[in-house]
Amino acid sequence: MAINITIQADVIDIRNDNPQKSDIFLVETNLWFWQTYTNLGFNAKPDQLKKIRSYSKYLNLALSNEATLTYSALTLAELSHIFEKTEYKIYIKSNGYLAITKYRHNYPAERANELM
Fold it and tell me: What predicted TM-score, i.e. pTM, was given to this entire model?
């Protein structure tokens, strides 16, 4: 039997919108990444940085206006994967190692940098 789901949502232009306290947003993984990751500039291109700033500005405005932010149950797993993948790229670029099979496994200095 097919599942019939009705989703009620509006598409808005975040450049011209002012989020309200009554608004509810489903925030996807990339936005959480952009909002929380300290090494964000490592791989971002200039056009991506412009988009990231727009979304981050809107999310901060939503937070300051006490809008509700929601997320999927998979967000934490996806976010952890993106953090580790990016940290691995930074490690490879900084150290020149191309064939690490167990990243951070036998590198105490790198394990100390793990995100909590």
Answer: 0.67
